[in-house]
TrEMBL record:
Keywords: Kinase, Signal, Transferase. The gene is Pkdcc. InterPro entries: FAM69_kinase_dom (IPR022049), PKDCC (IPR042983). One of its GO terms (biological process) is skeletal system development. It comes from Malurus elegans (Red-winged fairywren). This is PKDCC kinase. Pfam families: PIP49_C. Residues 2-116 form the FAM69 protein-kinase domain.
Amino acid sequence: QICLSLVKLLFYLAHSPLGSIVLLDFQPRQFVMVDGNLKVTDMDDASTEELSCKEDSDCTLDFPTKSFPLKCSMGGKCEGINEKKNLFNAYRYFFTYLLPHSAPPTLRPLLSDILNATGDLRYGINETLGAFEKVLHLYKSGLYLQKRPLLLKDYISLKGFRTVEGEDYKCWPSYSHLGCLLSIHSAEEAAAICNSQSQCQSFIVTQQRTWTGRPLASFQSSWTDLIPDTNAVVYIKRSASSGERL
């Protein structure tokens, strides 16, 4: 969410009515999340000036660990230097820390491609935004899910119930530090996640949604303390409930 919001912001800056805007003091502390969108807190160090040049050798974009040769335009300006500077700073301050983590395994290669392409400045901001929106579409639609055996048939569902909240086993990347709370595309995906975790005996699908509209599911190591909740459905492994009365 943070990276996508940042890319949308940089897309706007690259195509602003004032021309391509560069953030000269590009640091994480210069940004804040407001209602799920990343915003710049200080525009004092923003500039629409692009480096003047006479030949291509005047247009080297230098960073502490990398340098990029750019083209000198017919108008005597280094082509795209503001856009590329913003994008590489996004790569080194945000993408490298946030993109490699917590995505479903089948989407990680696509995020790795974005990471590598922006790190080498092979992508401009248009291509980067397009790549992010493709990943988001796959994630929201569930198209990233690989065909696998249907596992939900191995669970008993009880509508209108959930387990008592409390500390339970933890997983990564959980939305709660008290237990294992993950976003899912469907109950079928939740069943596959539960089957992959040795501690999991049940899971609860709630009405809570993430910023992408995906429901949250809480994975539990037991199911015995059930309480009414009209907005939840608890799924219990048939093997865990055998010999018990529901």
